[in-house]
Fold:
Amino acid sequence: MHCLILYYSMTGQAEKAAGLAADAARAAGWDVTCCRMAMSDPADVLARPMNVAASKKWTQGAQKGMTVPLTYDPPDAINGRYDAVLLFSNTWGDHPSVPMRSFLESPAAKAVLSGTPFGAYIVCRRLWQKNLDIVRQLGEAAGGCFLGGEPFMHPGGQIGSLIQTITYLYRTDGGRRRFAGFPLPRYGLSDEAVARVAPFTRNLLARVSQA
Structure:
């Protein structure tokens, strides 16, 4: 059984989750191909520290359904046929990231997903439901068979995680530890989210194996 793991990652969190899923899939006996998406125009490549203009452009772009040309690493990964596809979708605003939507609305998605079971991992700070709904809708529109999806979130409450994310994206260090005297959660996936990646992956792939 052959599984494709497809992700975009700016800060490394989706990549971390994708790596954990790959390990779980291999342990379950699957052949795994990991593929990283990137925006093909060098001017569109995102990196820390971000600025307000870039943050606004890409968040609003995600909300409006913006798509851009993509590259894939390895390039031939999306030309294969798979028994399952696992999609790792970052939340920008409350929508899928521009790279994930760009893939899902591309001819490549139809080639990869047609008749193929797929699962969705929503890697996010808080808002995730609309992201998951859109990934499911677009994946099914491309011909895929939805297996299930779950959020994998950052630690801390709504306000603390928001402050930490904003300051982390606008800096080059590990983020602030305190704001106005109050402690902030660390940036990145929570320990609980990390622990759920492997069992969720096993559950998704077991459904495919048993079908």
